[in-house]
Amino acid sequence: MLHSFTVLLLLLLLLLFCSLFLLPPAEAVDDTYTLPDEHFINCGSKSSVTFGIRSFTGDPFYGKGSKPVQDPKPSGDTPVLYQTARIFRRPSPYKLEMRQNGTYVVRLHFFAFSSSVSLADAVFNVSAQLNASAPLLLLLSNFTMKNSNESTVVKEFLLTIGAGKFLLYFIPSQISCLAFVNAIEVFLAPNGFVPDYATHINLSGIKGNYSGLLSNVLQKAYRINVGGPNITEETDTLMRFWISDDQFLLFPVFTENRQTTYDELKFVQRGANGSTKYIAPESVYGTAKELNSTNSSKKFSNITWRFKVDEHSKHFVRAHFCDFITPSLNYPGLNFCINGNFCQLISPYETINQLSAPFYADFVVDSGKSGNIDISVAPPKDERYQIAFLNGLEIMQLMENSYSSFVPLRPEPKKKILFIIAGSLGLAFAFIIMAVVMIRLVRKKEDAVEIPRLPSSLAFPGWSENDMSTARTVGLGLDLELRIPFAEILQATQDFDSKLFIGEGGFGKVYVGTLHGKKVAVKRREPGYKQGLAEFQTEIMVLSRTRHRNLVSLIGYCDERSEMILVYEFMEKGNLRDNLYDTNGCSKPNGLSWEKRLEICIGSATALHHLHTGSAVKIIHRDVKSTNILLDENYTAKVSDFGISKSSHSDLTLDNTIVKGSVGYLDPEYFMSVELTEKSDVYSFGVVLLEVLCARPAVINSPQKEEVNLADWGLFWLKKGQLEKIIDPSLVDKINPNSFRKFGEIVGKCLEAKGSNRPTMHNVLWDLEYALSLHTGINREDAGESTTNISLQFGLPVLLHLPTSSFPVEENEQSIVGNNGSDTSASEIFSQLKFAGPR
Ligand SMILES: *[C@@H]1O[C@H](CO)[C@@H](O)[C@H](O)[C@H]1NC(C)=O
Ligand SMILES: *[C@@H]1O[C@H](CO)[C@@H](O)[C@H](O)[C@H]1NC(C)=O
Ligand SMILES: *[C@@H]1O[C@H](CO)[C@@H](O)[C@H](O)[C@H]1NC(C)=O
Ligand SMILES: *[C@@H]1O[C@H](CO)[C@@H](O)[C@H](O)[C@H]1NC(C)=O
Ligand SMILES: *[C@@H]1O[C@H](CO)[C@@H](O)[C@H](O)[C@H]1NC(C)=O
Ligand SMILES: *[C@@H]1O[C@H](CO)[C@@H](O)[C@H](O)[C@H]1NC(C)=O
Ligand SMILES: *[C@@H]1O[C@H](CO)[C@@H](O)[C@H](O)[C@H]1NC(C)=O
Ligand SMILES: *[C@@H]1O[C@H](CO)[C@@H](O)[C@H](O)[C@H]1NC(C)=O
Ligand SMILES: *[C@@H]1O[C@H](CO)[C@@H](O)[C@H](O)[C@H]1NC(C)=O
Ligand SMILES: *[C@@H]1O[C@H](CO)[C@@H](O)[C@H](O)[C@H]1NC(C)=O
Ligand SMILES: *[C@@H]1O[C@H](CO)[C@@H](O)[C@H](O)[C@H]1NC(C)=O
Ligand SMILES: *[C@@H]1O[C@H](CO)[C@@H](O)[C@H](O)[C@H]1NC(C)=O
């Protein structure tokens, strides 16, 4: 009975004590600052979520080259904020509007979950741009959570930012092609949060004066609640995390933790010396670690904490004090020591002249070869006061001269859109064409596009019926010897076993099989695919009549029971694109050598030359692209896919009203004029050459307009004479400079705006062989040094100026590929049009 009464009493006392402890502090500080509501961003999510003491709003990201992802199966204790993220495949910025000049806290939250991609694989840099003319500051370099033991990493920076636009770039590395972020905080810190100068302690312990702190980026290294527990985002005034100090103690004995109640604390402003609860909260000042004077063994007459930091760097160190420990102000102060060779007396009496009044001291500290910063507190010389204590400690790295190697292109000044159509009628139809292109693209990005041409009565000047056309020779000229019975095909592919499925294209699914003991690729037309009978017949016609070492060879076909099946020799190494970069557009780490690449280009050029000049029939391929160049086991290039080719033999004019080709490879002149010549193949081949050099797709999503279209991108750098800036990283320093120059020259010529200025495939072939000989050093005796300059003609024959607003396609950032995050607009895909100039 008595026993339970005591327990009850104890409980009550405990409760009383707790309530005292948790009592909200009286508003002691005259500080008009409150934690702002902006910007707290819940990246990758449309909804707001509360985290810490703020609501993180839905992701406002509107740039390109990125998309939201969500943790498919978050564990129960994962905060909602960390269940979504935004991923980046290309350097892309978050753009934030700063209302006010000042020092800002920038915090990035990372939590690596696995969805369609594993965020832990990401390796990336983060850079900040303070204003349009400022260089990019590097905040994080080669950041990854691959080897991190922590599930969550929060990186924090202090930046002094002017009012206006603030850009935060996420820059994936070439290794991973992936960057991500789960949440972003960018908010104004209290006025005077960080001073512009502070006492500087160098390695010899000599005191100096460091000024210009505010023009540096500061990165949080440590934030310690000395003598107390962890303080979390939920309770800190600025949503900081303060970690308990014990793991940093060098000699964990002879110390004891002390604490006081919050309402004991007296936040006073005495000059600039007093602290506020935003500098550090009550929970930091209300706890301290004190030297345990009970054991006054001289051997351990101080408390020392050791912090691992970067070698040879500078750190901003802020020590927090609050003397609720000494009984009276007679205490002369404690010795605050840095790295064992600098000590300064910190006197609460002189600094703040009150007991239990929080204050702090700032230093800039050099770290040496050891990469350690040691902080100690020791009692004063006066033997009567064996007291030393510390309440809190913050260490922030000064990131001096840390600039990003990635430099975004300046946005082009808004210029008038040049479009080469005469008359307003033409304009109207240009809209229609664009609209159709966009609709098509929404359906299938990778496929060849078809663009219906206008009825000839309404055709633009210069449009004429072309004498060549796609074959639609139903039942005509199909080589019966190549016919293969359906039963044999079923046998070869084990009834189209899904295990033998290797890919699909515009025509249907492709299986690997064994026919008469030979490995074959079997392409079977399936309902729902765009290409059909016409393509089937064209393919058979072309390949049965034209055989060449660099053309894929057709073994046979099957048209039984309304099947449309094509059987080819099997190409061991797949298509050229897959040998250059992966599905994310990341170049292969150990890609093909330059020599191999040139040989592949030469092989493909040989094939195209043969097609263009073949004696009996001249053929325009019309769909030259890296996926239509296949490689056998020796990397011999074999051009394939003649489904939409045109031959001079065919005489039907059924689809003369249609522009065909693939996005990113399509000759803009052909697109405008609908007059197909073999020079359109030369243009597309020029894009393939760039792809081979840069190992990136012909079209990508990118916030940089210039970069979207590989042809534009290549010409952009070629014109600057800096094509080397964009080459495949695995080729850097591995190309003979003369060979490289020659190659750039070939690319420039192939991508000439006017077809008539482009070389023939024969010339291209010749030049490529020369580039190869320059690289390998094996000279062809008849190859004379060509000194032609790369002369790119950017002069634009302008027939019509349109104000930006009257041409919605150009400026519209609307997505054309649905909402899966790939949102390149049609205008960018066809931005080459600006260069086109048919007359
Ligand atoms: C920010 O600072 C710049 C230059 O120091 C000044 O011109 C501008 O008026 C300031 N803007 C605000 C909003 O304080
Ligand atoms: C842009 O930032 C740089 C570097 O911080 C600064 O020197 C410059 O004054 C800023 N310019 C404007 C217009 O704010
Ligand atoms: C980051 O990675 C790049 C490429 O792997 C390397 O060149 C660079 O030295 C690394 N930088 C740092 C600071 O580790
Ligand atoms: C992660 O933990 C392991 C074992 O606990 C340790 O050996 C390793 O150093 C830690 N890695 C990091 C980056 O802290
Ligand atoms: C990231 O920063 C490092 C410098 O620390 C640099 O070497 C590297 O090239 C940068 N990576 C990218 C993709 O810009
Ligand atoms: C520290 O500063 C003093 C005075 O400026 C100088 O003599 C000394 O060489 C410096 N020590 C180091 C390690 O830089
Ligand atoms: C340090 O430098 C700043 C600016 O250069 C100056 O205003 C300040 O008085 C200096 N402090 C000391 C203690 O010399
Ligand atoms: C304090 O935080 C650190 C780092 O997150 C963690 O390792 C530690 O367990 C926490 N301590 C307590 C008492 O929760
Ligand atoms: C202080 O040291 C004495 C003697 O070593 C020990 O008995 C006492 O428990 C210590 N106090 C604390 C709070 O650790
Ligand atoms: C003080 O510390 C020394 C060294 O560890 C130890 O030998 C001694 O017993 C301690 N004294 C007390 C009173 O605990
Ligand atoms: C702190 O005490 C340790 C152990 O006695 C000693 O090695 C060190 O020099 C002292 N540091 C300071 C700054 O007094
Ligand atoms: C602030 O602190 C310094 C050093 O601790 C002291 O010299 C100065 O008098 C203090 N200022 C005020 C207004 O108390």
TrEMBL record:
Residues noted as binding ATP in the record, renumbered to the chain: K523
Pfam families per record: Malectin_like, PK_Tyr_Ser-Thr
Any single Gene Ontology cellular-component annotation: plasmodesma
Membrane-spanning parts: 417-439
Record membrane topology: Single-pass type I membrane protein
Domain of life: Eukaryota
Protein name: Probable receptor-like protein kinase At5g24010
Native organism: Durio zibethinus
Gene that encodes the chain: LOC111317080
